[in-house]
Amino acid sequence: MRIKAHDPRGQHVKSVLKMPAPTSTILWCRSRSELAHVAADHVAALLARKPKAVVALPTGQTPLGLYADLAARVAAQRLSAAQARFFNLDDYLGLSADHPLSYARFLREHFLRPAGVPEEHIRLLRGDAVSIEAECRDYEAAIEAAGGLDLAILGLGTNGHIGFNEPGSDWSAQTHVVALSEETRATHLTQTQGKFVIPQYGVTVGISTIVAAREILLLVAGRGKARALDAFRAGIPDPKWPVTALLTHRNLTVLADAQLKSAAVPDVMLPR
Ligand code: GLP
């Protein structure tokens, strides 16, 4: 996907245009299970190529099918994730790893445990760290010590957030604390059927950490995602839509539910 050359936003877009042509494309999937299967093939191919790959994982409804598919392949001994290293993208601030809302708990239940990943290969953000600043620094250091991310798997927030990088986030930021937007908190409140008070803050790997990954897999499905996906498809980097920070990544794969394909927004695919 390339960027519109006539964007009035000036400098930023000019610098984007100087970068080598990115190669991203959107693969439209006809169902959630197809999306899960194609995503699982993608991860399995990486693990076959590089069994010790370093992978960052998202939370949410979207990757559940992927995690179930990968766990089934592990159970059938068609895949091993035992040598890979896993990080997560984000969590709520202040929650312990066993809190029912905690993303750490979610990932252990839905993927890390069923996929048989040994504890020493797992590093998850500690939302309840005594010093969250030190935790953010340690987390970045742990990713670096592992050799950097080979793959960042991302979901998409209805407002275009990736990880917990909300609209207006600093694209040069590494792991940091964020104030969650009302839209994000309201979505999460609905998802949890109002059973929990949604924290006001989160901790997330930054956009610079995400785009430093050698490969990115963006999964887009679910109600309310069309606007954010349309902003991405418009092809213009815009801090109001954090997902557009991915537009210039050189190894980005986007898997999206075909129901989100609005004819109103053609993908920007300028001739090379
Ligand atoms: C949360 C998480 C994101 C995730 C997003 C989408 O806000 N912080 O990391 O990508 O939700 O979730 P879902 O897949 O449930 O739509």
Helix content: 25-40%
Biggest sheet: strands, sense, closure? 7 strands, parallel
Share in β-strands: 15-25%
Present as ligands are: 2-amino-2-deoxy-6-O-phosphono-alpha-D-glucopyranose
Strand element count: 10
Mean pLDDT: 89
Question: Any idea what the radius of gyration is?
Answer: 18 Å
How would you spell out the order of helices and strands?
HEHEHEEHEHEEHEHEHE
Q: Any idea what the shape is? A: globular
Q: Output the structural class.
A: alpha/beta
At a glance:
The chain is built from 8 helices and 10 strands. It has helices at residues 11-18, 32-49, 64-75, 103-112, 132-145, 182-191, 207-211, 226-233, and strands at residues 25-29, 54-57, 85-88, 90-92, 122-123, 151-154, 176-179, 201-204, 215-220, 252-257.
Helices and strands in order:
Layout: H1 11-18, E1 25-29, H2 32-49, E2 54-57, H3 64-75, E3 85-88, E4 90-92, H4 103-112, E5 122-123, H5 132-145, E6 151-154, E7 176-179, H6 182-191, E8 201-204, H7 207-211, E9 215-220, H8 226-233, E10 252-257
Parallel strand pairs: 1-10, 2-3, 2-6, 3-5, 6-9, 9-10
Antiparallel strand pairs: 4-8, 7-8
The structure holds 2-amino-2-deoxy-6-O-phosphono-alpha-D-glucopyranose (GLP).
2-amino-2-deoxy-6-O-phosphono-alpha-D-glucopyranose binds next to loops.
